[in-house]
Write a structure and sequence with these properties.
Layout: H1 4-17, H2 36-46, H3 48-68, E1 74-83, E2 98-111, H4 115-181, H5 187-221, H6 245-255, H7 257-277, E3 283-294, E4 306-315, H8 323-371, H9 373-389, H10 395-430
Antiparallel strand pairs: 1-2, 2-3, 3-4
Helix pairs in contact: 1-4, 2-4, 3-4, 4-5, 4-7, 4-10, 6-8, 7-8, 8-10, 9-10
């Protein structure tokens, strides 16, 4: 009764028309095939924010070296020539008319009131801040990659469901036309079946458009041309995980980069208080020099022209107009503010973890309620088609069975996508990477 060859040709024609065109080859290409892991690694390598943050780590390392320099002596070699139009009488030496000087100078900060140590500690903590910031940016990029990739898999599954529903409608329409030809059904049923085909065609178009849109977004995330071809053989698949909210919270407090950033900020502000308090303390410096001074370069380096000096400098602050007190008060306020900010983040993370757990439970419930009904819906469709062919059922029964099967499949696909996204959101909430990458130093 059904012209199978005609049905197959119709489905293939429609799929090709609303995909990439009649002449385009849609077969998977090894050079364009993409996996989630490859997508994430490509995004890590090409993302501009990550590249800029890696340079921040280089800057932080340089700042540590600069902070270390405060503990090391400063040694300078100086050479100068000065012409003096007048000099004092020979009894009072004030230099030469042609004054040549070669000097080796040494200076060392013995005690800076704790400022140098505080600066060094802050520099080391700042490196940790930049490394944790890089980890946070990678987690954000990873989450976006998972969102777009899972979305692409959902779009492919939605397209498959739409094509299957269209093929079923076309097959039923062919059956009804044959039945009408032999006078076993009404013209109304034939027209109604044709309308049903027309109603399902836009779903395929929308599904293809969603695929192309997600490909463009994914290419943008990967810093590639939006038209770069993407193919994948992966399908939407889930694996249920044990939901333990307390354990998730514990992991979040231990490994989420934002929590570590808040803790590091508290430590930096704590050393900022010591930096401010250094204004109350004495400053001790030592210096030494070894020099040659002569009116003539040819007669410069000899015992007579040689000199050396050494000294120590102690600066004890007595009154500085309350400027140090103002700095200390401000530093203490920043320290208190940092602790409050961390407490606020702890509360926010608890909310995010709770939401992720609830989303996981909801998606799991949807999957469990739909996955066992797919085969039943297929069987119901088969029975309705047979019943209609035998005059037991009406046309509307077939349409209802077709819609029910497509809806159950869509619900299952959407539930799977929601579960995968809930997992991705949970991983981001607790700071768990999907792909482990080496720590940047």
């Amino acid at each position: 009764m059904v012209d199978k060859k005609r049905i197959i040709i119709s489905v293939l024609f429609f799929s090709a028309f609303f995909s990439f065109g009649f002449c385009q080859d849609n077969s998977p290409n090894p050079n364009t095939e993409l996996t989630l892991r490859n997508a994430i690694l490509t995004a890590f390598g090409n993302n501009k924010d990550i590249q800029m943050q890696e340079q921040e780590i280089t800057i932080a390392n340089a700042n540590i070296l600069f902070a270390k320099s405060a503990f090391l002596p400063q040694i300078n070699l100086e050479g100068s020539y000065t012409y003096n139009k007048k000099v004092l009488s020979p009894n009072i030496f004030s230099g030469y008319q042609n004054d040549n000087l070669a000097n080796l100078a040494f200076s060392e900060s013995v005690y800076s009131g704790g400022a140098n140590m505080a600066n060094f500690k802050q520099a080391k903590l700042s490196l940790d801040v930049q490394q944790e910031t890089l980890r946070a940016k990678k987690l954000d990029v990873e989450f976006d990659a998972r969102r777009l990739y899972y979305g692409l898999l959902l779009a492919y599954e939605t397209e498959r469901i739409a094509k299957d529903a269209l093929a079923q409608a076309i097959a039923h329409y062919e059956d009804v036309k044959q039945m009408y030809k032999y006078g076993t059904t009404s013209r109304f049923d034939m027209l109604q079946s044709g309308v049903q085909v027309s109603l399902l065609e836009p779903d395929v178009v929308r599904a293809r458009n969603e695929i192309d849109s997600l490909k463009a977004e994914l290419n943008k995330l990967l810093a590639r041309n939006v038209n770069h071809p993407i193919e994948t053989k992966e399908k939407l698949a889930y694996s249920f995980i044990e939901i333990d909210e307390k354990d998730f919270l514990k992991n979040a407090y231990l490994q989420r980069p934002e929590i570590k950033l808040k803790s590091l900020g508290i430590d930096i502000d704590k050393w900022g208080i010591q930096m401010a308090k250094s204004g109350y303390r004495p400053q001790v410096d030592i210096s030494a020099g070894y020099s040659y001074r002569s009116p003539s370069l040819s007669n410069m380096f000899n015992e007579k022209q040689r000199n050396w000096n050494a000294g120590i400098s102690i600066n004890i602050p007595i009154f500085e107009g309350f400027s140090t007190k103002a700095k200390v008060d401000a530093a203490k306020a920043q320290y208190a503010q940092a602790k409050i900010s961390k407490d606020n983040l702890v509360d926010q993370i608890a909310v995010e973890v709770r939401k992720a757990c609830l989303d996981l439970k909801q998606a799991e419930a949807i999957i469990l309620s739909q996955r066992d009904n797919v085969e039943q819906a297929k069987e119901a469709l088969r029975i309705s088609e047979v019943s209609y062919a035998n005059g037991v059922a009406i046309n509307l029964d077939v349409f209802d069975a077709q819609v029910s099967l497509a809806q159950i499949q869509k619900n299952l696909a959407a539930g799977t996508f929601d579960y995968l996204m809930a997992q991705a959101y949970l991983d981001r909430s607790i700071g768990k990477p999907f792909i482990e990458t080496p720590r940047a130093d």
